[in-house]
Amino acid sequence: MSPALSLLILLGAEAVALKEKAVVSGRWVRIADLLDLDRTDPATRGRIADLYIGRSPEEGQTRTITADEIRRELDIKGIALDAAVWSGESVEVSRGISTDTESLRKSVAKALLRQSGAALVRIVRLEPETCAGDVVEVKPNGSAYIAVMSGGEKIDVVARILRLRDGVFAARDIAPGRRLERSDLETHRIEVADGDPVLEMDLVVGSVAAQRIRLASPITVADLRLKPAVRKGDLVRAVSSGYEVDARALEDGAAGQEIALEFASSKNRLRGRVVDASRVDVLESAR
Known about the structure:
five-stranded mixed β-barrel, alpha+beta, single chain, five-stranded antiparallel sheet, eubacterium ventriosum atcc fold, Type Iii Antifreeze Protein Isoform Hplc 12
């Protein structure tokens, strides 16, 4: 503390001192989170510490709150500190995780891990972030989950469920235009979130490199001109929730790609997503 600021506090002057950086654990920032408590006089601290100054940043991000913002918020709330001596122009605020939140995250992750049989569970968000009691069960809720607590409370959960899969990687530098052979490739066990696409080795072998692929790089759809699983003119089985009929492919398509089809009998056209060389899942009804 500077001698001048110490003297002002001893003389009873209002003094507000800000930290340079602050870490908050909740969704909202209090002025108390931003104050250097040792250099802010007790009376002023008692008047403003529990007031809120807005939302905290998302985890991994920061937010800068200026002294001017704090003064404006105080003015709105009818608290005038015109005579106060301010120290510090701004505070860089980051989001941390409180002990209670960390404990709840671990409990929910453990329950999801046990339920899903996954390799790893990463909790993205909990709402609310803290809750007393134990996790009784975790239930799917669309693309998210709901954790039911022993006291009956429910927690909205957003999580990434990761499973071990074989990913395909380049075993050497691969030039654009090269048709890939098995010797060009290798597999490694990787953690993949549910719903994230992973190329199978059978699909990669025989495809053509669309760009240069560096040694040890993972192979993605963007790297390849995939070999067709279905070729134009092939007869395939078009499968929907209401029917399953023969259809003819009107264009080439790799597994996972959309193609145009026509029913073999009526010639009505539709679109489908290629599953393999014999099956296409219908995306649009026949017209």
